[in-house]
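Problem 12. The chain below contains 363 residues. Write out its predicted structure in token notation.
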Amino acid sequence: MTAIPKIMKAVLLKGHGGFDQLEFRSDVSVPLPQRGEVLIRVGAAGVNNTDINTRTAWYSKSVTEGTTVEAGKAGYAEAKAEDTGWTGSALAFPRIQGADACGRIVALGEGVDAARLGERVLVEPVFREPVGWRPYEALYFGSECDGAFAEYARVPAVHAHKIESRLSDAELASFPCSYSAAENMLTRSGLAAGETVFVTGASGGVGSAAVQLAKRRGAVVFAVTGAAKADQIRALGANRILLREDHPAGLLGQESVDVVIDVVGGSRWPELLEVLKRGGRYAAAGAIAGPVVALDLRTLYLKDLSLFGCTILERDVFGNLVSYIERGEIGPVLAKTFPLEHIVQAQQEFLGKQFVGKIVLIP
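Solution.
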């Protein structure tokens, strides 16, 4: 196996703010795997909303607006640094971001099976192992610890999942964050074959993944997207397309949907509960249109609804996802790739939202 260098290329996030906080460097130390960890040579790393949200400090509770192009470029001036991480704590800088990674294991920490050297892996981005698998506690790859926007990354061995696939590294790197988030929402909400599911933000990474994964389960899929992207979302498995300006209850009827999968939130959020059947389930893993919503508690309890917040992955979610990929039951939706050093251009394209699926960086 090729010798591992002492330094590598990586993008450092120096602090919260605009694109000027992203610094491409070629003199970053290659991390050393500790006990129970592996070092992977990153083949490709996906771009996600969370990368931009972390840089701009959108996770701070002091930010109440949705994600915007302007804030994605400049950051949120009102954000308070003490609660800008996924865990509600301050982030440590500099940080190597990147929650999505496909690569190969090139070095092993103490206690890791020697047979794993050389494995091709997908990295499960929610690290429960370092905190002892305590319920709903984790470190996040590229947020609370360094991630995949680099030539090398170290991860807990248990979260580096072996994968056998003919897909390229870039195609495989489109899966981990978005697809695991979508599958986790479907798992938590218990979507079953024959049920109806309403997917918001269907052209984005998580939304397009949810359409595919829901169809894989045998559900009837209603998906919300823009008119220009409708045909692409139908091709992923949507049975019916609703446009962003449509009123769901007016088109589908009151109490017509078993499950809502939401990454949008915003001022029109109450309309999502209108279309849920009595006993329906709602799952959220994002709020790009705004995190603060109006909830009429009477709707919640009189309709016996269940609401699920979904961040920490259930134990079997990522392993199941890898098996779906290996069996060809779901496919990548790769929009475009960029070299790692063009990360600003990649994020600008991401913010423009003129694509379906994922943008991926190649280190």
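Discussion. Residues 7-175+332-362 form a domain with the Quinone Oxidoreductase; Chain A, domain 1 fold (CATH 3.90.180.10). Students who got a different answer should revisit the alignment rule from Section 12.3.
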